[in-house]
């Protein structure tokens, strides 16, 4: 059995298509975990209610096995927490008006609870436990349903004046429809919707990036070129020691890593490009670290 002192914690990662939940020791050892569908079309209140029900069930199972119940929790969310809801979170209707912290604290019966941006939590996980260990600065790219970056300087994840540091998905796209931003072109959902609209095919974005069919290959090449250019711009701005890439699109890791390596090769000091240690659950791992910091504040960064 894992070391249960000083207590157990709960992590929740709200994604555009899935919600990951886990209980863990304050030292980071996962006790139990579960994944459910987000079902974003149901709206924000339904999504958070479903997550709370699943979390309480997970806490019950953990307590039955260990004799202890989690005493703190952290949630990872797309977007930025604000007074009235979560800003910059377009994938779940109503998320921008949802007081997520209050809903979770009340629903879970936990006073020690924090909420943070998913990519910033994933960046923390990669710095403390993964591919960015010791990197100063370090750059993390999340390529999945959405696209965003995290930056670590001096061991601290950069937040920015409004908490929006690294939100590159809102940068203008170099192709696509007028007014399109980067996420509208290279985000996983955007790729899948474009393929469905133009061919009727239902394909995962990773499948598109790996396809050798001519039309899909052309689409993939355009996506990868824009993604690489975005990372190259960040490399020029930040001069990172290491770039780590995670997220759902890393099911097609080879073409993504190759495209980014090509793009940054022309910068003055090209950094190594690495797959993240936590390719698909970095935000959950970061949430568990944040929750552990509420139990043992000396461990928090």
From TrEMBL:
One family name in Pfam for this protein? ROK
Tell me which domain of life the UniProt entry assigns to the organism this sequence originates from: Bacteria
Q: Which InterPro entries match?
A: ATPase_NBD, ROK
Cross-referenced Gene3D superfamilies: 3.30.420.40
UniProt similarity note: Belongs to the ROK (NagC/XylR) family.
Q: What's the protein name?
A: ROK family protein
**From which organism does this entry originate?**
Jiangella anatolica
């Amino acid at each position: 059995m894992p070391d249960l002192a000083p207590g157990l914690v709960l992590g929740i990662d709200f994604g555009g298509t899935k919600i990951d939940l886990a209980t863990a020791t304050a030292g980071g050892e996962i006790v139990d975990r579960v994944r459910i569908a987000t079902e974003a079309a149901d709206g924000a209140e339904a999504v958070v209610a479903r997550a709370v029900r699943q979390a309480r069930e997970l806490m019950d199972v953990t307590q039955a096995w260990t004799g202890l119940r989690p005493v703190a929790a952290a949630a990872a969310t797309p977007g930025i927490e604000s007074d009235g809801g979560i800003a910059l979170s377009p994938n779940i209707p109503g998320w921008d008006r949802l007081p997520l912290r209050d809903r979770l604290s009340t629903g879970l019966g936990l006073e020690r609870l924090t909420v943070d941006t998913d990519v910033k939590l994933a960046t923390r996980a990669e710095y403390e436990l993964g591919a960015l260990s010791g990197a100063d600065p370090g750059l993390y790219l999340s390529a999945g349903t959405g696209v965003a970056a995290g930056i670590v300087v001096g061991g601290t994840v950069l937040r920015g004046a409004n908490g929006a540091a690294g939100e590159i998905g809102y940068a203008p796209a170099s192709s696509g429809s007028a007014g399109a931003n980067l996420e509208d072109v290279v985000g996983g959902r955007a790729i899948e919707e474009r393929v469905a609209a133009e061919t009727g095919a239902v394909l995962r974005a990773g499948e598109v990036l790996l396809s050798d069919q001519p039309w899909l290959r052309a689409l993939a090449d355009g996506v990868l070129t824009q993604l690489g250019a975005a990372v190259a711009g960040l490399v020029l701005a930040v001069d990172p020691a290491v770039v780590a890439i995670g997220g759902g699109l890393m099911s097609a890791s080879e073409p993504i890593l190759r495209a980014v390596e090509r793009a940054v090769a022309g910068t003055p000091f090209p950094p190594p490009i690495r797959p993240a240690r936590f390719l698909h659950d970095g935000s959950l791992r970061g949430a568990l670290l944040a929750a552990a910091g509420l139990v043992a504040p000396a461990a928090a960064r």
